[in-house]
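Thread: Newbie trying to understand structure tokens

Hi all, I'm a second-year student working on a class project, and my supervisor (Dr. K.) asked me to get a predicted structure for one chain before our next meeting. I've only ever worked with sequences, so writing a 3D structure as a token string is new to me. If someone could post the tokens and maybe explain what I'm looking at, I'd be very grateful. Here's the chain:
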Amino acid sequence: MVSGNLFHCRKNSWPPEEYLSRTALQLFDFDSAAPPEQAWRRRLNSHANILKEFSVTFTEAIKMVRLGIRLWSYIREEASHGRKAPIDPFTRESCKPSASQGVPLGGMGSGSISRGFRGEFRQWQIIPGLCEGSPVMANQFSIFISRDGGHKNYASVLAPGQHEALGKAGDQGISSWGWNLSGQHSTYHALFPRAWTIYDGEPDPELKISCRQISPFIPHNYKDSSLPTAVFVYTLVNTGKERAKVSLLFTWANSIGGVSHLSGDHVNEPFMTAKGNPPVTFAIAACETQNVNVTVLPCFGLSEGSGTTAKEMWNTMVKDGQFSRENFNSGPCMSSSPGETLCAAVSASAWVEPHGKCTVAFSLAWSSPKVKFLKGSSYHRRYTQFYGTSELAAKDLAHDALTNYKRWEEDIEKWQSPILNDDRLPEWYKFTLFNELYFLVAGGTVWIDSSSPATNMRNNQKQLTNVETAEMQTNGPNTVNKHATNSSCYSTAANFGLESDSKELCSYNDNDEDVGRFLYLEGVEYIMWCTYDVHFYASFALLELFPKIELSIQKEFAKAVLSEDGRKVKFLAEGNWGIRKVRGAVPHDLGTHDPWSEMNAYNIHDTSKWKDLNPKFVLQVYRDFSATGNMSFGVDVWPSVRAAMEYMEQFDRDNDGLIENDGFPDQTYDAWTVHGVSAYCGCLWLAALQAAAAMALQLGDRDFAEWCKTKYLKAKPVFESKLWNGSYFNYDSGSSSNSKSIQADQLAGQWYTASSGLPSLFDDHKIRSALQKIYDFNVMKVKGGRMGAVNGMHPNGKVDETCMQSREIWTGVTYGVAATMILAGMEEQAFTTAEGIFTAGWSEEGYGYWFQTPEAWTIDGHFRSLIYMRPLSIWGMQWALSMPKAILEAPKINVMDRIQLSPNGLRTSHTHNETGVRKIATKAKCFGNSVFHCSC
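---
Reply by user tm_fold:
Sure, no problem. This is what the structure looks like when written as tokens:
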């Protein structure tokens, strides 16, 4: 149950002293072993409560009954073909979601494994689009301690709780291990992409243990950030008077989550997973030094009849603290039988002198080089560009992770320090900002190599028999034993420090490296790649940290705008038929089972009639264009920008310059009906007209700039006259019961306008008045501002319950509203608004949504769609706080004033001004917003 004081306790910072003794912090104050002051924290003995999923009301269910029947039929049809429907609200996972998540492992796009705050490895997403939430309990770190004199011995798994079969007579599996850790004196500290677990005298009262988890998520580093690997660095401090022998054990099951470990035919070499998916190989390793001795057990089982059982393995460690060195010569084991689980283990042992310190490093790597979609082609993941396409690369990855993790940490700290040290920012914001980035690893990301088949770029690559364990030695700078290859270390320079309130994004030219193609899911429950109406919110994170990936996604959508797919699709909301992809319309997504080739996996509504997708495309393209100064990007996507704008003319049915909605949910709020002119879509349209005009002017397409200006000058007064009521913009211009509702997202267009350095769409007093209304009603009237901004609120102060979505709080929208407030000079309201998401979702007294932030929750804390893309919009707040110099230094003049209208008014010709655009592109070798000073 959720604590009753959730909305009465306000905690702005979590000083480590409240979780750790000062003595422990001082002892770990070297080699990054101590957790940072700004981190999300949790005690290991905290209860991981089961999360409460949303349910529709009776009225909502009646309204959606036809949709439900059609959706159920569609889900069953897809299942008959061995496919999972992109949206399936009927199937419940066997593992109920709980408040147990932590920082995920690995880089982006090569499969991910999450790790709960109590140490369990869970949330497996090795195969694209498939997520196994259950932990694999055999995957553990354990510790064995003996002291001189032999009267103090400890053996324990380094995870709290008891295994379900603990104490069962004759058990040969992991329940026979020592599950002795209470977690009372152990704490977890998270600052993505790193995490620290501190065992402050557990299980040995005289031994302090720090384990820090490091993954290669490094902004602007497009090589290391693609690697499927992570490092665990243990720092041991002996506070006793006796020398201690400490053995750390890392065990790993041959599994990719779920029941895959029971399917048989697994060996400690590449193995096939079910349903013809590409093979996956794991490697676990430890670094052997002068003081650290590494041994391995290549194979043990979890049941009686195994060559070596889990119980026998544990007893060997209790007795000897290590395995036989002869195991290095054992070769591959026999393949497993169905129902049998194979595991491997690496042990690292060291003596720690009284008041002495010791460091032991482990690594985990996995190699699944080929991505295969159910209805489409196979692709090589990006990391294969550097490691080749063999599954044996897991050993090389494990080796290189141990070689390079210190450099990774240095680069991560350079990136994070300016924000962490900024005294203007609230403490909760700092660690929530970084921790929300978990989604770029755990959000089902796929990053492929777009070039020709990969070749192995490492030196001295050798093909060796693969086992799941590998030992790393330091008797030579780059040597390993027979279970890995001789190799050379590689290095990628990265420079991404934020030196001031503004930032300079990387410069571009035609010879920039090919960063491949990138996909990320809308959410692990909504399995559609790069859902564009949601990417509108999330894309600030990519633009800020990996701008080349952001531009590559925009280019994919630009190509899609000009394409058409005439295959017939049944739209489930109304039961009508249409074509899959209409030319000129921005697709909702890039697909599910055949991305890039079969777009628009979403089939609830016909999204070619949605009113927000095309304006969002134009706004994102212009923001990216103005921020990066990439002229070739602007020229490449310009035909698609024009096509997207011209496509929208059909929705201006009364020729007033303003688009109208069509009386169904034709927008990202796909259950919330809109009539006539809407605040959300209308504002996006006005912003898109201004952005397209500015881009046309900069690219030399004066005819189109004039067309946009003419439309804008007609549309803006109509928008204000129909929707402005003196304090905010009404939800829509219709006459329904919610037409005058206060929509939290009514100024989404203004958000992008200000984020791109364009003049405001409305007078400042109207912008601030609308935002203040949202703050006073949508934010503060819901649990005193401790939950975020509810989507819809009636002017009488009651939540708009027109539909499921109007009564929800959307986490990503709340962050977007906060960003808009920052840009309007309302910082106090902005951080109070966003803090509601932290309080309800991330705080110690909250609902438990950390590292799985959902799309939405209701005012009573029921979630919808965990691990969702949109909350990445918190980086829209950071963007507002430190926009690039290209935008900040742009002349503050009205773009529209530079466009001279012809006497004939609206153009009738849509001929593309190709010559003018190409001429400008050729001349502009160095481009910035200062182009406004040029005469075209």
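A couple of things are worth pointing out once you decode it. DSSP finds 21 helices and 28 strands in the chain. The CA atoms of residues 220 and 717 lie 43 Å apart. Feel free to ask follow-ups in this thread.
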